[in-house]
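REQUEST FORM: STRUCTURE PREDICTION
Request ID: SP-0412
Submitted by: Lab K.M.
Chain count: 1
Length (residues): 120
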Amino acid sequence: MFTGCLPFFGLQIVLGVALAAAFRGNRILAAAGTWISNPLTTLPICWMNYQLGVLLIGPGPAWPGHDQLDPERLSDLGWAFSSRLMLGSVVVGLLAAAVVGLGCWRWLHHKERQSGLERR
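STATUS: Completed
RESULT:
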């Protein structure tokens, strides 16, 4: 979930699997978690992340027009834009990973307890 919120188009799965390997996590689930970012959700996620970055850092450049939103041209927008987008992306990614991770852990714990009661 964390790397799926980052604006590294095309590298999100690779980064997610690498982080899962480094932290001894499930690599398949890490790859699947990046699918939060897909052609339908990428623009809304990036917009929300940028807005959060603006809220945390302060006003920055206006959200770019449609012609500037392809991945190759995002780097042309400069540090003022990129810093806000990255900060917002990291914060949202950490929150999403924590919420989903805790939710999965609780669900698995519940299933484990439930199966233990059925065996008795």
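NOTES: The radius of gyration is 18 Å.
Reviewed by: T.R.
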